[in-house]
Amino acid sequence: MKYVTYDAGHGPRVGILDGEQVLDAGFDGDMVAFIEAGAPTGDTRPVTGAVLRAPLRPRTLRDFLAFEGHLLNAFANLGRDIPPEWYEVPAYYKGLPDTVIGPGEDIPWPAYSDQLDHELELAAVIGRPGKDIDAADALDHVFGYTLWNDMSARDVQRRELPVGMGPGKAKDWDGSNVLGPCLVTPDELDPTDVHLSVRINGEQWGSDTTANMHHSFADMIAYCSRGLTLHPGEVIGSGTAATGSGVELDRWLQPGDVIEMEADGIGVLRNTVVRQP
């Protein structure tokens, strides 16, 4: 099943994507409430004039670094080696849920940055609560998968990382995290072999497959659930796929660029980068 959040002029509602048609799911509430309620579906009906929004406003955003190829590419440009701990620990940082926007929305270019970058990721959304989850059972806690464009202000990031606190303003501004276009349930998607690609203004800049992830979604979910209850609506990001960012290629976004991220079984997440006054 492909679930969406849509707006047809009366505020966001949960829908089902059937080809290009949006069907109202007959649920009065947002996506997180829908997941918590067990994804009940009432009488579905086609929706006229539906505009897709971000599939959900997450409870939390946790972003990992699962692709060795991305690190090899990015660290080579930064003159750094991959720390040996990376191979042992699926470390992550936390983002701000209120920064999330959805398909078709403009990505604002923050005024304090001169070097903006995209990051191509697959994300899992938790559907069932759990604590100290075993990796063998971790995927049973996933409600669905979506695309995540984790934008980065690279010039700001270079100044922040030496402090050792992780990304701050390099990641945090309104519209810096893009999710969509839909949530695809696990019965329709194998997270271990999803082909991902990114195009800028129609030109392919990168592609990879989740088969190349060093840390699996199961391992990442198990790790972050240690001593901590995960709740429905929390987002777990794969980290950037190899060649899924400009920093790996020394190619950089410009105002007005159209970013298209695509995943087999999910679709295309399309946004335009806009420099604001």
Summary of the model, kept short:
The protein is mainly beta and 277 residues long. The chain has 2 domains: 2-51, no CATH class; 61-275, Alpha-Beta Complex (Fumarylacetoacetate hydrolase, domain 2).
Description:
The chain has helices at 31-36, 68-78, 154-160, 217-224; strands spanning 2-7, 12-18, 21-24, 45-46, 51-53, 61-64, 92-95, 100-101, 106-109, 116-117, 120-126, 142-150, 152-153, 177-184, 195-200, 203-209, 235-237, 258-263, 267-275. Helices cover 12% and strands 34% of the residues. It has 277 residues and is mainly beta. The mean pLDDT is 95. The protein contains 4 helices and 19 strands.
List keywords for this structure.
5-stranded mixed sheet, 277 residues, Fumarylacetoacetate hydrolase, domain 2, 34% strand, mainly beta, single chain, 19 strands
Query: How many DSSP helices?
Result: 4
User: What is the residue-mean pLDDT, rounded to a whole number?
Assistant: 95
- Strand percent estimate: 25-35%
What is the total domain count? 2
CATH topology of the largest domain: Fumarylacetoacetate hydrolase, domain 2
Distance between the termini: 41 Å
- What is the general shape? globular
- Can you identify the CATH class of the largest domain? Alpha Beta
Q: Would you tell me the structural class of the helices and strands?
A: mainly beta
> Helicity, in percent?
10-25%
Oligomeric form of this entry? Answer: single chain
Radius of gyration: 18 Å
The major beta sheet can be summarized as: 12 strands, mixed
- Return residue spans where pLDDT drops below 50 for at least 5 consecutive residues: none
The helix-strand sequence is EEEHEEEHEEEEEEEHEEEHEEE
Q: Give me the CATH architecture of the largest domain, please.
A: Alpha-Beta Complex
At the fourth level of CATH, the homologous superfamily of the largest domain is: Fumarylacetoacetase-like, C-terminal domain
Give me the count of strands: 19
